[in-house]
Write a structure and sequence with these properties.
The chain is mainly β. Strands 17-18-20-22-21-19 form a 6-stranded parallel β-barrel. The radius of gyration is 22 Å and the shape is elongated.
């Protein structure tokens, strides 16, 4: 590999089509697309300060690097990229990128980030911004903090562990999502999803988990969650009191107590749903 150390690079396409490079302590300043169409690149302690740094690239490794605010739309159409101990200040990162590994990465402005990507693994990632991970697939996450609405819209085949998410409209239109040991707060959680599973989770959601085909909840807690499960098919095991349930389409709901149960025969077939609480033992 050719070594590039402590350089200050400017101008458009500074290292265009670079190949087999080890880049250390280098600043990519003003100038678009500095590493466009690059191959087999390792970056250590380096900084990107302008737009489109890694488009159409292959086999990229970054450690202890920073993407500043103007490095926006930074990684598009790229394949096989890993980032470790990095900070990303720029929005709209990762678009139509396949094979992403993020370890201890902070994204302070993650608006419209990770769109239409595939094969993603994230470990100890923090992000802030709306529309995170739209239409991406085959995602595995462990240790995740997100502040941002409309996250994971349209995703497929997702597994999440140990997350804390403040996210209105999370998991809309998603398919095959399983979340373990996590806290999620946000209105309208999971609408129009298919095969959404929540295990050992605490949820806070106004009108949450509605219009879902096959919602599964195991050993979960619902806090300040009202008008839940409307038109959803559900198998829910809730270990505390649910504030209110509205017109589930079918299945089973087990809870310590349901403060308000609304089952309207004019809107759903009430015989298809079994309600089990300490106060109510029979099917409704």
């Amino acid at each position: 590999m050719k070594n590039i150390n402590q350089k200050y690079l400017t101008g458009e396409r500074a290292l265009f089509q670079g190949e087999d490079l080890k880049i250390c302590d280098t600043t990519f300043a003003d100038g678009e697309s500095p590493l466009k169409e690059s191959r087999n690149i390792e970056l250590y302690g380096s900084m990107f300060k302008w737009k489109y740094p890694l488009w159409y690239s292959r086999n990229i490794k970054l450690e202890d690097c920073v993407v500043f605010d103007m490095g926006r739309a930074g990684i598009w159409y790229t394949e096989n990229i890993s980032m470790k101990n990095c900070m990303i200040e720029a929005p709209k990162n990762f678009r139509r990128t396949n094979g992403i590994q993020l370890d201890r990465v902070t994204m302070t402005n993650a608006a419209e980030t990770l769109w239409s990507c595939d094969r993603i693994r994230m470990n100890q990632v923090t992000a802030k911004g709306d529309y995170f991970a739209m239409n991406s697939s085959n995602i595995y996450i462990d240790g995740f903090e997100l502040v941002g609405n409309y996250s994971f819209d349209g995703v497929k085949n997702v597994e999440i562990h140990h997350a804390r998410m403040l996210s209105k409209d999370a998991f809309w239109n998603s398919e095959n999502v399983t979340v373990y040991d996590s806290f999620i707060s946000g209105e309208y959680l999971g609408w129009n999803a298919r095969n959404l599973t929540l295990i050992n989770c605490t949820i806070e959601s106004n009108q949450g988990m509605c219009y879902i085909d096959n919602l599964v909840m195991k050993n979960c807690r619902l806090l300040n969650t009202t008008l839940a499960f409307e038109y959803s098919t559900v198998d829910a095991e809730v270990n505390n009191t649910i504030d209110s349930v509205l017109n589930p389409a079918g299945g089973r709901i087990q809870a310590e107590k349901i403060e308000e149960l609304i089952m309207e025969a004019s809107k759903v077939d009430v015989s298809k749903t079994v309600i089990q609480t300490a106060e109510l033992k029979e099917a409704v």
